[in-house]
């Protein structure tokens, strides 16, 4: 396939993936990706069984899947790059060849992070920026700029800090949102709103605090308004999962959003994940409650 045609097709594919992910709340179901069609023909965006998708008509890899539990785990190191292991077999043939072509051509690819079975968080565009045959791995960057930084294995500290910041914004935060939304079955913990595109994953203890880790027990699925109200300490949550609205806001008189959207939530119990391991950590809630009540 002509490289301009392939590049244009990738843009179309990425636009579609982005739109679907936004509608769902930041992730796609495996079936959506396998069922993708363009110009009247099937073009699955992931492979049925392998963690790499190399459409036969494409010169370069279209997507890779990384999973925390799988054999092809991406190792995120402190350089902020992803270390993607070679596929089994011939290091210069098969699937590895098209990843190497992606490095040479600079074609953007899609990284799908598998947070749990069947659900994938897209991270894109990503770029193959180096090949380490002695370690049987490719280095993958979240910004095209790394293609032009020279030796990415020995980056200076400012570039490494930039890569880590990118990894946090473009990899870890979206993955956190997916995990939390799935745990809460795509429902606001306060009001049970079910529109993924209107839901966020809120940190219970903010990520500026060392305890503010991006794990489900430190997360709450909240709609945009309740997330903002939670962050602004307009709304708090007690360690035993009761929603409390700040006294002065409770006393205000205003329209339906204040009355139904905020004041009516006062005293409600949070709607929590089914799995006990996904539920909010009591101690983290206590820390956050202190921040709300101590004001
Ligand atoms: Zn809500």
Q: What do you see in this structure?
A:
With 295 residues, the chain is of the alpha+beta class. It has two domains: 3-179, PUA domain-like, CATH 2.30.280; 187-293, no CATH class. The chain contains eight helices and 14 strands. It starts with a helix and ends with a helix. The structure holds zinc ion (ZN). Residues 188, 190-191, 193, 222-223, 226 line the site of zinc ion.
The CATH C-level class name of the largest domain: Mainly Beta
Distance between the termini: 62 Å
SS elements, strand count: 14
Question: What molecules are bound to this protein?
Answer: zinc ion
Low-pLDDT residue intervals, each spanning 5 or more residues: none
Feature tags:
295 residues; alpha+beta; PUA domain-like; 2 domains; eight-stranded mixed β-sheet; two-stranded antiparallel sheet; elongated; binds zinc ion
Summary?
The protein has helices at 3-24, 30-34, 94-105, 157-183, 224-231, 247-250, 256-262, 282-293; strands at 28-29, 37-38, 41-42, 52-53, 63-67, 75-76, 82-85, 109-116, 119-132, 137-141, 199-203, 219-223, 235-237, 243-245. It has 295 residues and is α+β, with helices and mostly antiparallel strands. Zinc ion (ZN) binds next to strand 12.
Explain the layout of strands and helices:
Elements: H1 3-24, E1 28-29, H2 30-34, E2 37-38, E3 41-42, E4 52-53, E5 63-67, E6 75-76, E7 82-85, H3 94-105, E8 109-116, E9 119-132, E10 137-141, H4 157-183, E11 199-203, E12 219-223, H5 224-231, E13 235-237, E14 243-245, H6 247-250, H7 256-262, H8 282-293
Parallel strand pairs: 5-8
Antiparallel strand pairs: 1-9, 2-3, 4-5, 6-7, 7-10, 8-9, 9-10, 11-12, 13-14
The structure holds zinc ion.
